[in-house]
Design a protein that fits this description.
CATH class of the largest domain in chain B: Mainly Alpha
Helix content of chain B: 25-40%
Largest sheet of chain B: 5 strands, mixed
Number of strands of chain A: 14
Helix content of chain A: 25-40%
Strand order of the largest sheet of chain A: 4-5-10-6-7
Strand order of the largest sheet of chain B: 2-1-5-3-4
Number of domains of chain A: 3
CATH superfamily of the largest domain in chain B: [2Fe-2S]-binding domain
Distance between the termini of chain A: 59 Å
Radius of gyration of chain A: 20 Å
Order of helices and strands of chain A: EHEHEEEHHHHHHEEHEEEEEEEHHHH
Number of domains of chain B: 2
CATH architecture of the largest domain in chain A: 2-Layer Sandwich
Radius of gyration of chain B: 17 Å
Number of strands of chain B: 5
CATH topology of the largest domain in chain B: DNA polymerase, domain 1
CATH architecture of the largest domain in chain B: Orthogonal Bundle
Number of helices of chain B: 5
CATH superfamily of the largest domain in chain A: CO dehydrogenase flavoprotein, C-terminal domain
Shape of chain A: globular
Largest sheet of chain A: 5 strands, antiparallel
Order of helices and strands of chain B: EEHEEEHHHH
Strand content of chain B: 5-15%
Strand content of chain A: 15-25%
Oligomer: heterodimer
Distance between the termini of chain B: 56 Å
């Protein structure tokens, strides 16, 4: 349970880090928080020839509001992003998700960008990036590219980051007006890998009718699975989901609360139908699918309620 | 693989060591610096026994390289007591409330709880459980650990002389008394 030998590098600037990584090529691996990589090293599941420790690159320890979203630097720890009022105001799903990531002590060290590059399909942050349609910025000497989430996660523990590339930041789009989010999980113990988890993003129009609804599942396949369920609920109104909405929505829309409720249940079934969980020691595939269905309905309803609250505050 | 010279300020004392890049902070503390109070359980971040404070924040020393910690401040369980050896309020509370049995997990709990109560002197029940959730104990069933956190919060708040929370009032036990627990 000790890491295999490697050549340790501690660059003092991003430019130096990119040079070292470029020279190391496929033998190079980036160490940021280490909360996933060091267990893999300790268990000898990975054995990089060169480890490039980016913990001295304080220029990457950033959480910044940008037009349209939040950019998180590669050295921003989970705990810092979780506490960031600016990040929570721009995109509440970040804090909702980060509270589900492992334990507080792990979040003191682990980084958001590191979690994305690690690309564990059971992890929360890849799911968030996929649901929101964010991107990861990859840099090598003389070249920078932004990879959209849809193309970033290529398989279990595999991302589009190529040998020699350094993930310098990630961009999470802001929550739009009349939108809401939620993240629900079931785990054996708080902080464990979730048996199933669903995050949802719902947007409404001024008349409280659903204009878009999407969900993303964790532990449900080789990569985060995003399912668009707009077709099941479009045009219906979450009239029953919040006090603010009830008063505001009176007389709007033609669908009653009953039809709306049926719509969410159908949407949740559609989500569960799209996941490909596997049997393992913790749960059967059938149980994970069942959980996904229950959590999807819960998350979608809560996201819709949150969106309705936002409509209420805008009136 | 060349060794790396690291300088750590451990419990207020500047310590130096020459370590391979792969040396875990937990092993550096125990083997290179002789501070065996930090315990090593699972070595993949699950059990929490190796928790130390890195620049004041609790972290897993088994998931941190010693080389990464170069230049930083570490507090281990050996550094929690006062300069004269007086147990810290958290240590005193664990002794009073029987928050340990075999003691293997205790250094991790003590470091975690020390930071928890520093940041949140009056945590709710839920916040205590969330704060402790990353530390495993195989002996106590956690009831007395949770009670120890409550008691430590009392002690820190200066309400220390009424006996442990929920216990009959009486003289406060010190760690030296706990051996008579079964008597």
């Amino acid at each position: 349970m000790k890491p295999p030998p490697f050549e340790y590098h501690a660059p003092r600037s991003v430019a130096e880090a990119m040079e070292v990584l470029a020279a190391a090529g496929p033998e190079g691996k980036v160490l940021a928080g280490g909360q996933s990589l060091i267990p893999l090293l300790n268990m000898r599941l990975v054995a990089p020839g060169h480890l490039v420790d980016v913990n001295r690159l304080t220029e990457l320890d950033t959480v910044e509001a940008e037009p349209g979203g939040v950019r998180v630097g590669a050295l921003a720890r989970h705990a810092r992003v979780e506490r960031s009022a600016g990040a929570a105001a721009a995109q509440p799903l970040l804090r909702q998700a980060l509270r589900l990531v492992a334990h507080p002590v792990i979040r003191n060290r682990g980084t958001v960008v590191g979690s994305l590059v690690h690309a564990d399909p059971a992890a929360e942050l890849p799911a968030v990036l996929a649901l929101l349609g964010g991107s990861v910025r990859l840099a090598r000497p003389g070249a920078v590219r932004d990879v959209p989430a849809a193309g970033f996660f290529t398989g279990p523990l595999e991302s589009a980051a190529e040998p020699g590339e350094l993930a310098v930041s990630a961009f999470f789009p802001a929550l739009g007006p009349r939108c809401g989010t939620a993240f629900h999980e079931v785990a054996r113990r708080h902080g464990d890998y979730a048996l199933a988890g669903v995050a949802a993003l719902v947007s409404l129009d001024d008349g409280l009718r659903v204009t878009a609804a999407r969900a993303v599942c964790v532990s449900a396949g080789p990569v985060p699975v995003v399912v668009d369920v707009t077709g099941h609920v479009a045009g219906t109104s979450p009239a029953v989901v919040s006090g603010a909405a009830v008063s505001g929505a009176a007389g709007t829309g033609t669908s009653g609360a009953g039809a709306f409720a049926d719509g969410w249940a159908a949407a949740a079934r559609a989500v569960a139908g799209r996941v490909e969980p596997e049997d393992d020691i913790h749960a059967s595939a059938a149980y994970r699918r069942h959980l996904t269905c229950v959590l999807a309905e819960r998350a979608l309803r809560e996201a819709a309620a949150s969106a309705a609250d936002d409509v209420g505050t805008r009136r | 693989m060349t060794n790396i010279a690291v300088t750590l300020t451990v419990n207020g004392v500047v310590r130096r060591a020459e370590v391979p890049g792969r040396r875990l902070l937990s092993d550096c503390l125990r083997h290179d610096l002789g501070l065996t109070g930090t315990h090593v359980g699972c070595e993949h971040g699950v059990c929490g026994c190796c928790t130390v404070l890195l620049d004041g924040e609790p972290v897993r020393s088994c998931l941190t390289l010693a080389a990464t910690a170069d230049g930083h401040e570490i507090t281990t369980v050996e550094g929690l007591a006062g300069p004269d050896g007086e147990p810290s309020p958290v240590q005193r509370a664990f002794a009073e409330c029987h928050g340990l049995q075999c003691g293997f997990c205790t250094p991790g709990f003590l470091c975690t709880v020390t930071a928890l109560l520093r940041d949140n002197p009056a945590p709710s029940e839920e916040e205590v459980l969330e704060g402790l959730s990353g530390n495993l104990c195989r002996c106590t069933g956690y009831q007395n650990i949770v009670r120890s956190v409550r008691r430590a919060a009392e002690l820190i708040a200066g309400k220390g002389d009424g006996g442990p929370a929920g216990w009959p009032s009486g003289p406060v036990r010190t760690s030296g008394d706990t051996g008579a627990e079964g008597a």
